[in-house]
Predict the 3D structure of the following.
Amino acid sequence: MGGPGVVPRLAGHTYAFRDVCLAAALDALTELDFDAVEVWLGHVPTGAESDAAQLLADRHLDVVAVGEERTDSRREDQWRS
C-alpha cells in the first residue's frame, strides 16, 4: 500500500454531517484538520455544483469522491454475492 515516503491521506465524509448544510459540514471537517473530503450528494442539490465547488475552494478542501447513501433494501449479506 505505497512505498517508502508515502503518507496515507484520509478524507472526511460530509454524510456524517447530513443534519447540517454543506457549509457547516465543511467547516466541521476543516476544524478536524481534514484537507480532503468525500461529498454526500444529499448536500449538493442538482444545479448547485458550482456553489459547492466554491465552498470547497474557500476552505482549501480537495474532493476525493462524491457519493450517496445506499438506499437498496437488501440485507448486508446479499451485497457480498
Remarks:
- The chain is about 30% helix and 15% strand.
